[in-house]
Specification:
membrane; mitochondrion inner membrane; mainly alpha; single chain; MCP_dom_sf; about 0% strand; Mitochondrial carrier fold
Length: about 325
């Protein structure tokens, strides 16, 4: 692994942070619509009770409410994910029995005291799962603020002409119980673990196949970024469709975290899942799935494509610098 953990964090503030912020602003309206469609009050708030017609003036209003909570959390959460993912993947690959030297005279690079026979797809799954568990601890408060801000009717919530932003209004609800900002951690991990567990093995496999097919010619930073983006879009779509039910549950849990009254009990992930299934059926567990698949494909394609381009650029710059120093 030519990139250090510092390189991975540097890639995020440069290429990664730019990509993440770009993706946040590009797909955020679709994410807001998804949250509103998945909310338990969708029919009551966004549909006319008599005609059943969608209240477009309300559904499509304030699509960027809560965006800054996500923007501010993107860099540390994505940095935590990729640092953990790349490090765990590197260690697991080096400790694999497939990576051990054939000759006993050749020193082993295994950083662990043991070896394992895990196949590469499972290594990618384990590494991405560890990355998600670390990342979700950083991201959960921002997700809770974001989803509650997306549902806030800012025109009705404050009567004063000096209206506060949606995020500030929601944050005020957690002033006396800040621990509830982590109410959706289990649900977020429950969604992201299967998502990344599916996404990254598919992503690495599709990317490897695309690179092998297009291996003729120079492997430029731009070419690798494009192939990575295509692979990320395909894998993101597949993973999104499969994990939509837990995403619906996660949305419901996080929306319930800001309920008024300190004694209000937030329902657990399993309880909310059973409630959705009982009241809305299987169809209810896939609400917003099409929108989520669309923005996941677009977002993952741009983000991972630009991340890979930034990572390769740092790696090549590091190699060139080492060669230049070697000539001196």
């Amino acid at each position: 692994m030519a990139n250090t953990s510092l390189d991975i964090w540097v890639a995020n503030p440069k290429a990664g942070a730019f990509a993440a912020v770009t993706v946040d602003f590009l797909v955020y309206p679709m994410d807001t619509l998804k949250t509103r469609i998945q909310s338990p009050n969708y029919n009551h708030l966004y549909k006319d009770a008599k005609t059943g017609a969608i209240k477009r003036n309300i559904l499509f209003r304030g699509l960027y409410q809560g965006v800054w909570s996500v923007v501010l959390a993107t860099v540390p959460s994505s940095g935590a994910f990729f640092t953990t993912y790349e490090t765990a993947k590197h260690i697991l690959i080096l400790s694999s029995t497939h990576s051990q030297p054939i000759s006993t005279s050749t020193p082993s690079k295994n950083p662990l005291p043991i070896t394992h026979p895990l196949p590469l797809p499972l290594i990618h799954t384990i590494a991405s799962s560890l990355g998600e568990m670390v990342s979700c601890a950083v991201l959960t408060p921002a997700e809770v603020l974001k989803q509650n801000a997306q549902m806030l009717d800012i025109n009705k919530s404050v009567s004063s002409p000096l209206r506060k932003g949606a995020t500030i209004q929601v944050l005020a609800k957690f002033r006396h119980r800040p621990w509830k900002l982590w109410s959706g951690y289990t649900a977020l991990v429950g969604r992201n673990l299967p998502f990344t567990g599916l996404h990254f093995p598919i992503f690495e496999g599709v990317r490897g196949w695309l690179i092998s097919v297009r291996e003729r010619g120079k492997d430029s930073v731009g070419k690798r970024a494009v192939l990575t983006g295509v692979a990320a879009g395909v894998s993101g779509t597949v993973a999104s469709v499969v994990t939509t039910p837990i995403d619906v549950v996660k949305t419901r849990v996080m929306l319930g975290a800001s309920g008024e009254g300190a004694a209000r009990k937030v329902k657990g992930t399993v309880a909310v899942g059973k409630e959705v299934l009982r009241e809305e059926g299987v169809k209810g567990l896939f609400r917003g799935g099409a929108l989520r698949s669309l923005w996941s494909a677009v977002g993952m394609s741009i983000y991972l494509g630009m991340y890979e381009g930034g990572r390769m650029y740092l790696e090549k710059r590091r190699r060139v610098k080492g060669e230049d120093e070697g000539r001196l």
